[in-house]
Each structure stands twice: as C-alpha cells, then as structure tokens.
Amino acid sequence: MTLSSGGEIGAGPKGLCRKGWTAASLLRSPERLTSPMVRDRKGGPLVPVSWDVALDRVVHGIRLAQAETPDGVAVFGGGGLTNEKAYALGKFARVALRTSQIDYNGRFCMSSAAAAGNRAFGVDRGLPFPLADLAEADCILLVGSNPAETMPPFVQYLTAMLDAGGDLVVVDPRRTPTADLATLHLGPQPGSDLALANGLLFLALEEGLVDLEYLAARTTGFEAVKAAVAGWWPSRVERLTGVSEPDLRSAVRMLASAERAMILTARGAEQHAHGVDTATAWLNLALALGLPGEPGSGWGTLTGQGNGQGGREHGQRADQLPGYRHISDPAAREHVAAVWGVEPSSIPGPGRSAYELLDSLGGGGGPSALLVFASNPVVSAPNARHVAQRLASLDLLVVADLVLSETAALADVVLPTTQWAEEDGTTTNLEGRVLLRRRAMDPPEGVWSDLQILNGLAARLGVGGFPVEPEVVFEELRRASAGGIADYAGITYARLNAGENLHWPCPSTDHLGTPRLFLDGFATPDGRARFFAVDQPDEAEPVSQAFPLRLTTGRVAMQYQSGAQTRRITSLPGDAFVELHEDLARRMGIVHGERVKVSTVRGEAWLAAKVSDAIRPDTVFVPFHWAGKKRANSLTGDWLDPISKMPAFKACAARIDRITG
Ligand SMILES: Nc1nc2c(c(=O)[nH]1)N[C@H]1C(S)=C(S)[C@@H](COP(=O)(O)OP(=O)(O)OC[C@H]3O[C@@H](n4cnc5c(=O)[nH]c(N)nc54)[C@H](O)[C@@H]3O)O[C@H]1N2
Ligand SMILES: Nc1nc2c(c(=O)[nH]1)N[C@H]1C(S)=C(S)[C@@H](COP(=O)(O)OP(=O)(O)OC[C@H]3O[C@@H](n4cnc5c(=O)[nH]c(N)nc54)[C@H](O)[C@@H]3O)O[C@H]1N2
Ligand SMILES: [Mo]
Predict the structure, then answer these.
(1) 593: domain range?
(2) pTM
(3) Which residues surround the ion ligand 3 when the cut-off is CB under 5 Å?
(4) For a tag on the chain, would you pick the N or C end, based on fewer CB atoms within 10 A?
(5) Considering 236, 268, 302, which residue would you say is the last residue of a domain?
(6) Degrees, nearest 5: CA angle 39-43-48
C-alpha cells in the first residue's frame, strides 16, 4: 500500500490506495536518477560520473572525516528499507566505518510507542496480535490515527467490526474521514491525550470497571497509577482537553463493556515531547481494563512506513544490534560479533538519536560527513531550517536515493538506487509478520541496489562481509537475530515462498511463528505487565498573544511522506494547505483557497487556507509533504521526548496572517 514497500499490511487485504497504484509510474519516471553524481565544490553543479569515481570520492571523504575519530562519519537510515538493507546498513556502520553515529527516521515515527511497549511488556511489536483479530473485536479505540487516509487497506477491519455491531471510538482534534466512521469522536486539544487517558482511567475506577482479577494475576504497579489518576476528575479533564464529561463516560463504558476491546495509538498521540508517557497512559488504561494478553484484545501501535516494524529491529538504531538486541548488552555484543567475525570490543557503543545526530553535524565535535539512505530530512526533520543548515555545513554529504530529493539536492555525492519492484527483499508488517517481495522488473541501466553500494564502499575500505544478494544477507540476519527478541532464525525465503505466514519470534525452521504474544505471560522478568504512573506535563510551547493557535501536522491521502516521490507524480492532485476552522477564518477575514502565512518562532510557511468545520477552532493543521516555502517543518520545534527522543511534531504555538498587497 505504500510507495516504498508495496505492502505494509501485506498479502490478504484487497484495498490498495491511490499512491500504490501510481507508484508504478515512478519506476520509469524521467525523474529517476540513473547515474551517480558528484559536486566538485560546494555550490557547484552535480555532474554525472562513473560508479568508480563516485565511490572513490565517498571513501576519500570518509577517510578525511575519520582522521581523528571513526565517529567523524555518520549514517542516517530509513524505515522504508527492507530488513536486509536495514541490517546491512547497521553492520556497515559498526564494522566497515566503526562509527557509533547511526540512527534513522523511525526515531521520528515509531519510537515513542516502541519505548512504551518495551517498558510495559518487555517487547515492542506494533500489534501483539494478528490484524484479523481487529475485525472480531467489540470495541476499538483509535488515538491520533487516521487510517482512512494513511492506511486505507486497514479500514476493512474497522468496517467489518462496525458491521458486526462493534463500536469505534476515534480520538483526534480533527473530524477526519476515520472519525466519520466512528461511533464516538473525541476531539481533544493537541498534546492533551495523556490527561484524557488518565481521566478515562479515573472514570473506570469510579464506575467499578477495572478488572481487579487481571490486575492481581498479570500486572505490577497499579497502586501508583491509581494514585496518579486520582487528580483527573472529569471537569478538570474537560477543562484541559475540551472533551465533555458525557463523552468521557460513553468512551470508557464502550471500552469496558466490550468483551474484546483494543486501544491503538498512532502518530497523533505519540509525536510529542512526552510521547512515551502519553502512549503509556493509554497502555495503563488498556491494562486496567484487563485487555493485553487476552485473546482478541490488547494495546497496539499502528506502524507507519513500508518497513516500519522490521526497520526498527535489526540495528539501524543508535542503541541497537540485530534481533532487537541492545548494543550495551555484553551478551548481545558477543553473539553479534561472532556472526560478524569481529571482536566484541570493536563494536562501538550507542550513538546519538536522529535529531541529536542531525543537530550535531558539521561542528562542535559532531560528524563532518554523513551518508543518508532512504530519508529526506530536509523536508521531514523537525526544525528543518536548522537541519538544512547543519547538512550544508558538512564536508561530505552522500545521499542514496531514487530521485533527487531535497536532501539529495544538497549532497556532494548522489548515488542512484533500485526500488521495491526491482529487487528481492523482506519487510515485516505491523503484526510482526515477515513478507517476501520478489523482484518484478529490471532496474534502469546504471542504477545499483543499496546492498551493492554498501558492498562497493566496504571493499574500498578494505572490509569484506557485505554480500549483494538479499537472500544471502537474510541468511546472516537469521543467525544474527537468533536468540534475540525479534528472532528470525526459523524464517527462510523458502518458507515464505511456500506461502507460510510467519510472525516473529520464530526460533527454528520447524516453529510456526508467534501470531499472538503474551497469552501466557509478558516478556518481563516476572512475566507481568508493568504499569507506569504518568502525568500530563506542561505544554512544550504554550500559545501566547503573539502565537495564539495550536499547530499540529500530519498527512493527507494523496501524498506520501516528504513527498520526494509523490510530488513528482503529476497525476496526484492537491497542494499544500493549512486547515483552519470556519469561525477562525471568518474572524480573520480569510476565505477558502486564499494564500496565507503560517508562522512560529522558528519560521514560516505560505499555504492555501482550507476552511473547514472539521477541526477545533483553536487548532490548525498543516500536512508535512511539501518543501520550500510550503514546508511544515519550517514551523515545528525541536523538543524531544526524554526517553524515545521523538520530536514534538504534533504541537507547537503558531499564528496565521493574511498576505496583503
Ligand atoms: N497517505 C499517506 N499514508 C501514509 C503516510 C503518508 O505520508 N501519506 N505515511 C506513513 C507513515 S510513515 C506513518 S507513520 C503513518 C502515520 O499515520 P497516522 O498516525 O494516521 O497519520 P498522521 O496524519 O501523522 O496523524 C494521525 C492523526 O493525528 C491527529 N493528531 C494531531 N495531533 C494530535 C494529538 O495531539 N492527539 C491526537 N489524539 N491526535 C492528534 C491528526 O489530526 C491526524 O489526523 O502513515 C503511513 N501512511
Ligand atoms: N511535521 C511532521 N514531520 C514529520 C512527520 C509528521 O507527522 N509531521 N512524520 C515523521 C514520520 S512518522 C516519518 S516516517 C518521517 C518520514 O520522512 P522521511 O524520512 O524523509 O521519509 P520519506 O519521505 O519516505 O523519504 C524516503 C526517501 O528515500 C527514498 N527511498 C525510498 N526507497 C528507498 C530505498 O530502498 N533505498 C534508498 N536509498 N532510498 C529510498 C525516497 O525516494 C525518499 O526520497 O517524517 C517525519 N516527519
Ligand atoms: Mo512514519
């Protein structure tokens, strides 16, 4: 369903979104890069060169940048990469470059929910149950998720549940197409979900809806949570979130009266300066109602990118080794070092998180060279004006991409790569199921796969162990992940080819995989799920007289991510906009379609006004798919969650001005 993968959800669902259909048109677009390009001097033109010249140039730059420390070079990956590529990239950083400085765009995507899942359950798998369970549920609560636009094939599970008489509750400051499907829509102020979840738990306690038997048998830490939510009585929650007491009561009753219920969060709840605690608040509610680990029920997070799940398991993260192992764990280092044929002590320790890494580039002891694979941070990183400056200050920026993205356009060396239909590879979907995608067509002449690029660079650095065949890489990934949390040891191309449905962990080739986690116990030392008491913090950036509106950002159906691909498909309609409520528009004299200026302390964007009655009057929404003067991330700030290092993409203070004259 997505451009970069052709199927996050995988085989089965019939729906295919418009982006999916049109993705094929990019495979042969004149915008495809077909030759490596090099810039001789900053500000000079990018000139086509041979692969030898380009890779020699990269390795020369790497050597200069590493003159003092291996950490002089950094790597930035992407959750759109296949498992094989993500694994190879993590190994390339640690073994060929010996740098600790690697992270990836999943930090901007799934990291808050992942941290919350890890801390409560001891494991992070988007859905600990199969997608098909959704259709069987009696109630689903979606928090900050708009799958009608962002995951159309997923909607069939919601409609099946609704058709069978189930209830859908949608929590979103906008009345989205997803909210239009819902039995009940709650529209809290952006960034106030934690108070909302605590308020629902307050009511569950008050109304005697908490599952005491489950709490006693399967969890720890409830007493502290009970104390923490005691201050969240309905009128206080209503004041802070804007959600009325009757709606709060309806929501909690729908959830609690359902035999099988699920709470699912997505980026609207998670992309905040306190995203981990917010996801935890919803997880606490799910635990208090006795949902996780019970058949047909639970808490989960809806994965984003083409390989958002697999991409976060095999070592692209600054603190991670393959198999979802921790890089600081001596046993993990020893196991992976043996597979890689290196000394455990040669594997670097944890590096900087994505935004901290981008922020550190080109000065003050940070890396002076950066290799980017499958991300376009000039558009997608928070506080993007600052990030673009950091990238421009590098001695060497290398970008591997299919098209000349805004980040590639800044690069000193651009390397053209193959894309999904042109190569074999696996991805792992949100339910932890591994999908094998077979090469369907030949790449354009002159284009290399990411695996070939890593192989060519490693060879020039005098390091072996970087095969170019995806299946060979997968065989190594199986061994590296064996015994880890995300254990792929029993998954093979042959089994996947034969049509087996394999969910990790799958420790041996005669193991059938694990579609449902936690039925017998959680992955914590005592087998119990852990409550964490959390409280609503102050806003990262409260509104003020100068910036009286709350800005949130997100997606539209017709564009994908930083738009590097979809903005090049001319048949996809739509332009950048700011959505604002009709009362606000009327007060300001703004008419639908008028171009307005949206600003924050950090920058401004020029956007068409989309006047609607489907958004809170105190909130404005800007999609982040556009670049230049339409870039949403010129506006966003760089507050990071203290645990996940997720940026606060979803709430800051802004103003709108009419452009006069
Ligand atoms: N068409 C399309 N589909 C995509 C993508 C794309 O770019 N385009 N990207 C893919 C990726 S990588 C991802 S991660 C997923 C993301 O999928 P979603 O999480 O569904 O997408 P978003 O639009 O980022 O955010 C969802 C909703 O959160 C709401 N929201 C904003 N602030 C808040 C808040 O404070 N609280 C609450 N409760 N809600 C809030 C927004 O109004 C929005 O409707 O989509 C994937 N699918
Ligand atoms: N304001 C705001 N900003 C956001 C978000 C938000 O909600 N609001 N969401 C965040 C989220 S959830 C995400 S996931 C990020 C996504 O933002 P990015 O990390 O920028 O992701 P993409 O736009 O998918 O960029 C992927 C790039 O890789 C290229 N590419 C695709 N496949 C391959 C491949 O196999 N190999 C190589 N080498 N290149 C490839 C594509 O052409 C494209 O240029 O944005 C984040 N930024
Ligand atoms: Mo994402």
Answers:
(1) 549-658
(2) 0.96
(3) 109, 304-305
(4) C
(5) 302
(6) 25
